[in-house]
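Run PilZ domain-containing protein through structure prediction, thanks.
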Amino acid sequence: MSRQRSIQRHQLPYYLKVFNRITDRPMGCLGNVSCEGLMLISQWPLLVGARFDMRLKIPTQDGSWRSVDFFGTCQWSQEDVTPGSYDSGFRLESPPPEYLEMVGALREYFTFQRLATSA
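Sure, done. The structure for PilZ domain-containing protein is below.
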């Protein structure tokens, strides 16, 4: 029996990368976010208990980038199911309004709304 998908898939044009704010070197990509923290997927494990100066570079509609700076403390770090990748959880210290706006926008974008059916 053949089944067709009823949910449209959206290909993301970018991965949201997290950078070390001091060196501007990439730390990894966002795995998930909340208002209180984030999970970072990187090529190496990170030091648990360490505080990091972090920066997100978010693409804008006009093709430029907007930086969002914040501090995060690594709560845990473990090897990912993908060989050579590590997941690290961060608690954010007083995240700026721009970060909270991004979390809200991502939540709205990725939330599936139940489509109204006509009778």
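Residues 97-110 form the longest helix (14 residues).
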